[in-house]
Amino acid sequence: MKKLIVQKYGGTSVGSVEKIKNVARRVIKTKKSGADVVVVVSAMGHTTDELIDLLIKVNPNYEPREYDMLISTGEQVSASLLASAIQAEGEKAISLTGGQAGVVTEDIPSKARIKDVKFQRVRKELDDGKIVIVTGFQGIDSKGDITTIGRGGSDTSAIVIAAALKADVCEIYTDVNGIYTTDPRIVPEAKKLKFISYEEMLELASVGAQVLHPRSIECAKNYKLTVHVRSSYNDEEGTIVKEVSSMEKRNTVSGVAADTNVVKVGILKVPDKPGVASMLFTELANAHISVDMIIQSVHEGTGADIAFTVSKDDVKKAVEVTEKIAKKTGAAKVVSDGDLAKVSIVGVGMIGTPGVAAKMFEILSNEAINIEMISTSEIRVSCIIKKEFAKKAVTALHKAFGLEK
Question: Which tens digits make up the pLDDT trace of 380-404?
Fold first, then answer.
């Protein structure tokens, strides 16, 4: 059976006419190697941000449906231009929107999750010998409306489409050579990883590593799909994201990440009685707000303080929901702080290795960095600190855990 490769190119990879022509040549080369090729593209460069700015100027209180209608055009531009560039080289190609490609989503504008991929149209075009270019980040809902699946959603589009088509591999092309032990712009000594487990990549993506979207890794893991993260500017091998055998030797810590897209929201002096936390976080969930860290502290005789973190995109709505709950429960007030960063260490080698968290706290203490919140999983430790110390923390942790080696 013919090999099928799904490739995804991010905004920087298709950010100019010359870059689009470069991607076209790379795609054609893959096709000529004997494989069927499906390409998923993001919008060019900063197109999405520019479209959002335009929308805000027209109506700061825009409807989510109109947001999706507008920003989905960015990917359509990229897809059409890339298909045209491939056709100019003498190869057959066709561009499809997410809806035309059969990507079906929930009826939730701007944050929809993909429910299904009806891949018959894509399969037919491949059988006709065409390279198929699909707009990432979007699909169509039960009403026939265009929906988008959240920032960074082109990764998810590519992996879901690859899984539906039972592709041999999903190649994610970006402006870096693979997955590194940390952001090389912060720590030049950062090392490229030859491979990384789904679990480690999911944790790193969730805590600020911006190479892959967390939902895309979750999907790849569920379908045991091999993902190859590599550069669109050279032919070097990148990083393979895969199931890692327990027999493979692993470092205690594989990577360090920092996320500055985080805001802490606090509701102070909440009556210390059952049901308040349930009420608060149910309302946040109903508003489609994802909460990360949660901490509750009880003060004798004065009730409890509850603090939690959300992304900056959700802070306005999160504060509104929390203020409503504060009024209903008689809490003192609601506060928020966006001058923060989440610094995390990740590694499957942390399982069964005592003292890793203690070492992280000691390193931050030695750098005079105060920790405001802590959360952990089996293979991750995250700390909320002041944003001004994020680079210092990442550099110190990377060195202390020997990742430059």
Answer: 999 999 999 999 999 999 999 999 8
- Report residue 70: phi and psi, to 5°: -75, -55
- The residues, any chain, with a CB within 8 Å of residue 300's CB and separated by 6 or more, are none
Point out the domain boundary residue: 120, 149, 175.
175
What does the block give as tokens for 379? 């293979």
Q: Which domain holds residue 313?
A: 263-337
What's 282's domain CATH number?
3.30.2130.10
Kind of pairing between the strands at 239-242 and 263-270: unpaired
The verdict on 46 and 149 lying in the same domain is yes
Same domain, 282 and 159: no
**Residue 8 structure tokens:** 């995804």
Burial class (CB in 10 A: 0-12, 13-18, 19+), 129: exposed
AA identity, residue 302:
T
pLDDT, mean over the chain: 92
DSSP 106-170: -S-TTT--EEEE-THHHHHHHHTTPEEEEESSEEE-TTS-EEE--TTHHHHHHHHHHHHTT-SEE
SS3 267: strand
What is the DSSP secondary structure assignment for residue 180, as one 8-state letter?
A: B
CATH code at 103?
3.40.1160.10
Number of domains the chain is built from: 2
Q: Which has the higher per-residue pLDDT, 213 or 329?
A: 329
Q: Minimal CA–CA distance to 337: which of 249, 401, 266, 240?
A: 266
Q: Please tell me the distance from the alpha carbon of residue 383 to that of residue 386, in angstroms, as a whole number.
A: 10
Query: Cβ(293)–Cβ(252) under 8 Å?
Result: no
State both tokens at 228: 């190859």
Is 307 within the bounds of a domain? yes
Number of alpha carbons in the 13 Å side-chain half-sphere of residue 283: 17
Of 175, 194, 212, the residue at which a domain comes to its end is: 175
Dist. CA 139–CA 389, nearest whole Å? 39
The rounded Cα 351 to chain-centroid distance in angstroms is 24
In a domain, 268, yes or no: yes
Q: What is the pLDDT of residues 86-127, one digit of tens each?
A: 999 999 999 999 999 999 999 999 889 999 999 999 999 999
Give the tokens for residue 168: 């041999």
**CA-CA distance, 400 to 229, in Å (whole number)?**
27
Angle at 278 between CA 274 and CA 281, to 5 degrees: 150
**Is a pLDDT exceeding 70 seen at residue 247?**
no
CB 77 within 8 A of CB 43: yes
